[in-house]
Amino acid sequence: MDVKKCICLLFSLFTLSVFANSAIARTAITVDWDNLRPAVAPNPIVLPELSREHLSKIQNVFTLMHSTESADEEQLTALLAELKQDNIDAIELLNMREAYIEAQKLASQSLTTEFDGKNVRIPGFLVPIQFSDAMVATEFLLVPVAGACIHMPPPPANQIVRVSYTKGYAMRTVQYPVWVEGVMQSSLTTEDVYIVDGTSNISMGYQLQASMVMDYH
I need a labelling partner for 42 at 20 to 30 A (CA). Which of 76, 143, 165, 197 fits? Predict the structure, then answer.
């Protein structure tokens, strides 16, 4: 083989390699929502099982604790003593409840960095937060359940992806699932966003710069 043919062959192999690597880079990784929720240790706080009657009394204790009325203070003292007779320390249980909620919150904010900087493809439902035109969403939350964040508490932070799509996606309703493709980054942020039923303070675990949004098939 002469030098000219050898150079041409090497150039061809190099070109094929570049195209192959480019194609691999463009290939999106399909991500399931469970992939975004890393395994965490069980909640270290274990709340005791209580009867409906005791739960109701503890709820009353919580309400009375935030009252400034003297009559309510007397009622609170009597209710605490009543629960004490049943070997229930209402104050301790309320403190345990606060610790339990905080532990659950931390677990919901645990993120994975496995997909940082990678091109991913993930299905879900859109919650629009910014439009370029009527029903053309350019900023939205991607969530695993239809209607999440609307008239209901938001999902955990690690189950919300904040998506930017400058091209804009013409929506029908929030009940239709979509595929979203783009580069993802783990980043816990909390933001006041306006949704159809008002402004909500929502924690989001991931950001995604979308290159494609299409109907789910």
Answer: 143
